[in-house]
Design goal:
156 residues; alpha+beta; 4 helices; single chain
């Protein structure tokens, strides 16, 4: 099996993420919640921190840190994917989601100095930090990678 389909998956995540952010930026007022479904709002938030607004108000140092970190990690994931055996499809798929999400958020950081978040999930008065499609891909890929790596271990 060739590896290029997994890079296409990364590209699809990037394109879907960027199209959604473009639509949100053109359609929603910042920091105003628009109910889509019960417990699910669209709320445009400008995130200067990491995933789920971690370190969002920490000052300017973290912008460069996350930009450089995301760039290095994206390159490392590409190398990892190239070096993986073709049969490691679960790992390749997981890494392709992480790569697409990382590059999707990196594009925001480089082009507009912050990440556009807009998915607001909540229960009663408890709101999960607002996130985006790229964050979802990174999280799903990381969980799948963790579960896949742990399930491949043999018990003696």
């Amino acid at each position: 099996m060739k590896k290029w389909p997994f890079f296409i998956i990364s590209l699809l995540v990037i394109v879907l993420d960027q199209i959604a952010k473009y639509i949100v930026l053109r359609s929603l007022a910042p920091y105003v919640s628009y109910e889509f479904l019960p417990s699910f709002n669209f709320t445009l938030v400008y995130n200067t921190g990491a995933a789920f607004s971690f370190l969002s108000g920490a000052g300017d140092w973290h912008k460069w840190f996350f930009t450089i970190f995301s760039s290095i990690m994206s390159m490392a994931i590409i190398v990892w994917m190239i070096r993986l055996p073709n049969l490691a499809r679960k790992q390749l798929f997981s890494l392709s989601l992480i790569l697409g999400g990382a590059i999707g958020n990196l594009i925001d950081r480089v082009c507009i100095d912050h990440v556009v978040d807009f998915i607001d999930i909540y229960y009663k008065n408890y709101h999960w930090p607002v996130f985006n499609i790229a964050d979802s891909a990174i999280t799903l890929g990381a969980i799948m990678l963790f579960l896949g790596l742990n399930s491949s271990k043999t018990v003696a």
